[in-house]
Amino acid sequence: MKKLEQLPHAQRERLAFIDFSLSYFGEIARADLIAKFQTGLAAATRDFATYKEFAPFNLELIHQSKSYHRTEQFVSLFEHDPDTVLVSLARGFGDGLTSQLENSQVCIQPQHLY
User: What residues does the DNA-binding transcriptional repressor CapW winged helix-turn-helix domain cover (predicted)?
Assistant: First the structure.
């Protein structure tokens, strides 16, 4: 089996999105992956299979809803930066692996709020 770092960047982004969705929403469907990354059904299916290779106990397919749900044994594959997570939850998931927030005049960083 390949290491996560050996996968193409685009695929790691999709796997990070799966991981993020399971972490913070508790579920994700192939349709979510297709809509976010404009991939085909076969590519989305492969991404879920690849995610399951790396973390076989993180998700289970619920056939009735055709979505994957986080399990009790879930352990995140990716380290999600708290600032990026808050922005992603508020504005949508961006480049989950590499994006770092920069200070701006219009955005108060989350750590300044508490």
Answer: 11-79
